[in-house]
Design a protein that fits this description.
Largest sheet: 7 strands, mixed
Radius of gyration: 23 Å
Length: about 425
């Protein structure tokens, strides 16, 4: 097996990467002397990938299939549940589904090889029956109903519905009661065959392991067939402006919650390293704008316009890139007015040079510290590879970012006509 060894002296890491004949991409970060092992097995399949084409055949599926499939994959043909077997092996397993991906993972200190084989086996071996699917429809239905009571979920999806007219990112990953009722065991088998093909997946490992042994285990446990990669259809192209500027709903909250956002137009058609660089720019730019050390945050907090921190991030999912800036405070419209004034000031005078340099150094230090966490590193590595870049390159990229790039990113994206606001306000008596 041909593996490529890449050294990252700046962060003290070495990674071994390669691709199996079946198309599976594998990356291993050996950590000699460490007692913990972490493994992530991810597929490029998430909640927004409802309509897709493979080998010339177009399929349209109900909302919620990817999430439903994640729930059911732990059922094994033997009648056992993979979660229980992992626990018996001393491992801590879990999984998650986003709009773009589904990932299965475990952490352990002993029995790594047995747990890795189990991970590969249960994720690649579907087992569904009409009875188990019907039972799961009830379980996920309750999950969907509970989500309807969440102010955080409401404010998030309302913002997406303001920004996107057609893209399925607007819809909840778990689907609706009506959509999951349309899911059958055949739906799950068909989607598993298409999206859980090794050619559409990535395996990432970190721990005191032999990279060659990991590659050999994957060769033994997985299908030898290399299948076509599906292509998602996200609907008609979106323009740069929101479909509507504001939506407000009332829920049982103590004070207004609000989320301001826009589509990230700086992201257009960027792939691989260019994609990663843009993500780094957006992250630093938003820290400069609204981080806890920013003048904007200090001013608004001291005036009582916000009552806690400002959450600002760029969310990359299913071919979209969405800027989101959220907080809580008595007057959402005053917050938006202050935000527009701050952005106008940045357009005129830019960021303070010293503040930029301190923020960048802090981000570089935080990035280095993040590599101490196997969980975070392994998951980020997996998600990055599914998007076409290696997250370990971020450290060197961060050091090359400029103040001017961050200023351009802010002023290009956050112009007033491009912003929409989602508000959850207290129930009126």
């Amino acid at each position: 097996m041909n593996m490529i060894k890449s050294d990252y002296p700046g962060i003290g890491e070495t990674i071994y990467s390669g691709e199996l004949p079946n198309g599976l991409r594998i990356s291993v970060i050996p950590k000699p002397g460490f007692s913990s092992y972490y493994a992530v097995f991810g597929t490029n399949y998430g909640g927004a990938m409802r309509k897709f084409e493979v080998d010339g055949i177009v399929t349209d599926t109900p909302a919620g299939v990817a999430h439903f499939l994640e729930h059911k994959m732990f059922d094994m043909p033997s009648g056992e549940n993979a979660l229980s077997v992992f626990s018996e092996n001393g491992a801590s397993p879990n999984a998650f589904t986003s709009s773009s991906y589904t990932c299965y993972y475990f952490k352990c200190t002993d029995g790594f090889e047995a747990n890795l084989r189990l991970l590969l086996q249960f994720v690649s071996t579907p087992y569904f029956t009409p009875e188990t699917v019907a039972k799961e429809q009830g379980i996920i239905g309750q999950e969907i109903l509970m989500g309807e009571d969440s102010p955080g979920s409401e404010i998030y999806y309302n913002l997406l519905s303001l920004l996107y007219k057609n893209h399925p990112i607007r819809d909840k990953i778990a689907g609706t009661i009506e959509s999951i009722a349309q899911i059958s065991d055949k739906t799950l088998y068909d989607c598993h065959k298409i999206f859980y093909a090794p050619s559409n997946m990535v395996l990432c490992i970190e721990g005191d392991v032999d990279p060659e042994a990991v590659f050999n285990i994957a060769l033994e446990e997985l299908s030898k067939e290399k299948r076509s990669i599906p292509h998602a259809d996200f609907g008609e192209p979106e323009d740069d402006l929101p479909s509507s500027p504001r939506k407000e709903v009332q829920m049982p909250v103590s004070e207004p919650m609000f989320l301001v956002g826009c589509k990230n137009i700086m992201m257009s058609d960027k792939k691989g390293p260019d994609d990663l660089r843009e993500r780094m720019i957006s992250s630093i730019a938003l820290r400069l704008l609204a981080g806890q050390s920013s003048p904007f945050f200090s001013r608004l907090y001291s005036k009582g316009i916000i009552t806690n921190s400002i959450d600002a991030e760029c969310d990359y999912a299913a071919g979209t890139s969405t800027v989101m800036i959220g907080a809580e405070g008595p007057d959402p419209d005053l917050f938006l007015q202050e935000l527009n004034a701050e952005i106008s000031g940045i357009a005129s005078t830019g960021f303070d040079k010293g503040f930029f340099e301190r923020t960048l150094k802090s981000a570089i230090g935080g990035h280095l510290k993040g590599f101490e966490d196997f969980d975070e590193t392994c998951v980020n590595l997996c998600l990055g590879l599914l998007d076409g870049f290696n997250c370990l390159d971020a450290y060197d990229l961060l050091k090359t970012l400029t103040k001017e790039e961050c200023e351009r990113w802010i002023t290009a994206n956050l112009s007033p006509e491009r912003l929409a606001m989602s508000v959850v306000s207290p129930l009126r008596q």
